[in-house]
Amino acid sequence: MRYFYKVLLIIVAISIPAVSMIGAFNIVFRLPDLYIYEFNKNQVTREMDLEIKDDELGHFFSEFMKGKEKEFVLVAEYSDGEQSVFSRAEQVNMENARALLNHTLYVLGGAAVLALLSYWFLLVKKKKYELRFAFKGGVFVFAAMLLALWVAFFFGPAREFFFHKIFIRPFGPDDVLPLMLTGHFAQLGLLAVMAVALIILGILASATWRLTKARKMFG
Cα(63)–Cα(167) distance, rounded to whole angstroms? Predict the structure, then answer.
């Protein structure tokens, strides 16, 4: 039984940071805020002479990443008439990016279920101190995950590997997506993921401390 408890504690230490990190990725890259901020800051639509607003473009990206827009197709009014903004290669790349993000939901669901079952069993068996200890271990795992993300971002070969994993087709010379999803956008996205993940981890920490609070004999 002792080894079973150890397995549960390891599950908690791994699943809690996984839920925080994967949840943050899905929140940041599905909601419109990051896209709208970056597009407004760089005045993307003005630079590319698009007859739409940067806010509308940001919402389009968000709706696509959430699955409300089935295809990455945007028709805009140019000076010489209506035209598709994105090429076929850009559409395929964004469809792949969404598919990869969707796949993380399975990991998120699995990690959440394992965490809930582990919490339930440990609380039923009155292993509150051990649960707190496992959560603290999860904080170190979380910090290691953040460090690995930043190392991967600034380490050229790792960055190239993930870039080609997401964008599976080479961009053409006239493609506009590289002008929108720049290196600065990726860095800002990672900062946003880190902030949101910390918030989620803080909420989980608060819930864990409430659940594992020792009962007072009097009062």
Answer: 19
Q: 3-class secondary structure for 109-123?
A: HHHHHHHHHHHHHHH
CA distance 201 to 204: 5
In a domain, 217, yes or no: no
Report if residue 218 sits inside a domain.
no
Using alpha carbons, select from 218, 205, 211, 200 the residue that is nearest to residue 18.
200
What percent of the chain shows pLDDT beyond 70? 95
Average predicted confidence (pLDDT) for the chain: 91
219 belongs to a structural domain: no
Question: Beta 81-84 vs 75-78: how paired, if at all?
Answer: antiparallel
- pLDDT at 217 exceeding the cut of 70: no
Domain count, the chain: 1
What is the extent of the structural domain holding 53? 2-211
Q: Given a cut of 80, is residue 51 above it in pLDDT?
A: no
Task: For residue 150, tell me if it sits in a domain.
Answer: yes
Q: What is the DSSP letter of 107?
A: H
CA angle, residues 16, 17, 23, in degrees to nearest 5: 90
